[in-house]
Write a structure and sequence with these properties.
3 domains; two-stranded antiparallel sheet; 9 strands
Length: 220
């Protein structure tokens, strides 16, 4: 019978026993399923002397169930060493080889976190209306303010004609001059309109274009 090596898993520190011929090969821990390479240097355990020559029993088949932390050490399954990149969590081949997330178990090779799953329920009509209503209201406000600004731009001079702001002098276009030019009132209106239009435009674009879908309900 081959000598046995006492090794410990580098991930969960579980004490395990493997045949000495597996030194230098990759093995998978049955406790945490971590794949690691057995170093050549180990502590060989001398085989027990048998009183009577008996037929050597077949080695037991490794079970899929996890070992109990307090139970005796058991033999480990051997993973064939090759050059194919494998997931460190489920030891299955990565596809593509440089994949960040394993398609088999959802383990993220960068964050070292396994993705979880949740059961969700699609949003109903009421949730859609509640989610989209603020964006629609913001769009209506923007359209109303822009329309009002355009109306003021066209009619501002007419509103000022005949008022106390009108002078007897005329300009080059043969129109009477104003104490305060109509453009000053229009600029004043545009400044205050921009304070409302700019944030409202950003809001309705985010809500109606980039984030138009309401969140799904997590099923408990």
């Amino acid at each position: 019978m081959s000598d046995m090596l006492d090794v410990s898993c580098p991930n969960c520190d579980k004490e395990l026993k493997v045949p000495s011929e597996f030194a230098g090969k990759r093995v998978k821990c049955k406790g945490c399923e971590e794949v690691f390479t057995i170093k050549a240097a180990g502590k060989p355990k001398p085989p027990a002397k048998k009183p009577d020559p008996k037929p050597e029993p077949k080695p037991p088949v490794a079970e899929d169930d996890d070992d109990d932390d307090d139970g005796p050490a058991r033999s480990m399954g051997i993973t064939k060493e090759d050059d194919v990149p494998r997931c460190p969590h489920c030891v299955k081949e990565l596809d593509p080889p440089d994949a960040v997330v394993c398609l088999h178990c959802g383990f993220n090779n960068q964050t070292r976190i396994k993705a979880g799953t949740q059961k969700v329920i699609a949003a109903d009509a009421t949730q859609w209306a509640t989610h989209l209503a603020p964006g629609i209201i913001a769009l209506i406000i923007v359209i109303a303010i822009v329309s009002l600004d355009a109306y003021c731009w066209v009619h501002m001079r007419g509103w000022l004609e005949g008022s106390a702001l009108e002078l007897d002098e005329v300009d080059l276009s043969n129109r009477k001059k104003m104490v305060v030019p109509p453009g000053a009132f229009i600029a004043f209106i545009l400044v205050f309109s921009a304070m409302v239009v700019i944030p409202a435009t950003r809001f309705f674009i985010r809500r109606l274009v980039f984030n138009y879908k309401p969140d799904d309900n997590v099923k408990k």
